[in-house]
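INTERNAL AUDIT FORM
Audit reference: QA-55
Scope: verify that the stored structure record matches its stored sequence.
Auditor: D.O.
Record contents follow.
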Amino acid sequence: MTNNDGTLVGGTCGVSEYGVPCGNAIRTRGPVGPQWAQVPVCEKHAAVLTNWNVGTYRTLMLAEMEKRGLISGHLPGYTYVIWLPNDRVKIGSVGREDRLLKRWKEITADYVKAGHKDPIKPIAVFDGGKSKEAAVQGRFNHLRVQDELGEQFSPDPELIDHAENQGIPTELAYLIPSYEKWWDRYAPKKGIAVPTSKDDEARRAADDDWLF
């Protein structure tokens, strides 16, 4: 059914899996697709369709171009690979160096809100922004978790080895202790126990800038 303004409300997912209609309730954020060809879908199939589209038409193409040496330079920024608290791997990017640590904090906070009690684990940082992110994602598109948004991938040894071989560049190594120090202050505020010393407790008590 639709509201007076024509927006779709209620109803069931319009996707079929191997000929069997899904039947789940459509997502509240609306249908997927361009305005002239939108499909009402549930949350799961919104992720499946989006990930298929991104993998088919963007990331695979850039991965192949990079493999063939057709990319002379990537867009500005940094592409990161992190191990998530849900035991999956995220490949994302930021436009500036000063956004890396902030983004890691944001991701961590989202998982803590969802009930997780572990920090993320940064594995690698590549030079290059959105285009490099797409190339790395395309290289490992076969490991992409299809039913969840957020550039998540299975922690296959192929991906982990590639990321660890890249590692964190020397000039960005400061990010790791900075993130760990932030987590040691942030976690107790959220009821998560972390090993502490009396010096750590005193520093946290004197530090009001514990979040971002």
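Auditor finding: record pair retrieved intact. The first helix runs from residue 43 to 67.
Action required: none
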